[in-house]
Amino acid sequence: DSGVTQTPKHLITATGQRVTLRCSPRSGDLSVYWYQQSLDQGLQFLIQYYNGEERAKGNILERFSAQQFPDLHSELNLSSLELGDSALYFCASSAGTGGLQETQYFGPGTRLLVL
Amino acid sequence: GESVGLHLPTLSVQEGDNSIINCAYSNSASDYFIWYKQESGKGPQFIIDIRSNMDKRQGQRVTVLLNKTVKHLSLQIAATQPGDSAVYFCADRTGFQKLVFGTGTRLLVSP
Lengths: 115, 111
Fold this sequence. Notes:
The complex is a heterodimer. Helices cover 0% and strands 52% of the residues of chain A. Chain A has strands spanning 5-7, 10-13, 19-24, 31-38, 42-50, 53-57, 64-68, 74-78, 87-94, 105-106, 110-114. In chain A, strands 2, 4, 5, 6, 9, 10 and 11 form a 7-stranded mixed β-sheet that branches. Helices cover 0% and strands 50% of the residues of chain B. The model of chain B is unreliable at 1-6 (pLDDT under 50). Chains A and B meet through strand 5 and strand 10 of A and strand 3, strand 4 and strand 9 of B.
C-alpha cells in the first residue's frame, strides 16, 4: 500500500458526460501528479500540483482540468467525455516539488469506461 | 511513444532463475532513473532508483545497473518468484522535469 488513495475505483459513464476523480496523497506529500494509462499510449503524464499550485503540465487535454485543495487532496475533472478517454487514471504523490531523486508513489488508479 | 498492453515485450522465466529487464533511454542529460512494477489492476509500485553519478545500486533481490555511455538501464531480479510476475517500467528524469516512462516489459514467471 503506497499511502495514496483514489476514488472511485471504477467509473462507467456515457460520451459527453463529466466526471471527477479524487486523489489523496500520502501524508506529508505536497505534490500530486495525474497520469493516464491506456492500452496504446502507456503512462502519460497529465499535470502536477504542488502545495495547491499548478507546477507542471503534460499532455492534458483542454477538456480536462485539475486542482489541489488546501488539504492537499486533488481532483481531476474530465468533461465532454469521448470513447477514447477510457483508460486508467493514476494519481501519484511526492514529498516536495518533484526534483532530484524524489520518488513518486502511485495510487491504485481509477478505471474509467466511456460508453 | 511508450506502449503497453498487447504489444508489450515479454520475458518468460522459470521460478528461481535470475531475470534481467532492459530499458533504453534517449536523453543523455537524464540524471535520475527509477523502476516501477505494475501488477494487474494495480498502480505502479516503486522498486528501486539510481542517480546518474552511480552505475549500480542494490536492493532486496533487485539490482539496477546504469550504463550512461550507451544510455541503458537494466533491472536484475535474483531468484525470481511467481509474485514477481508483472509489468516493469523504467522512467527517467532530467532535473525538475517530468518523469518519462519507457515501454513496459511483461515478466512472466512460471513455477
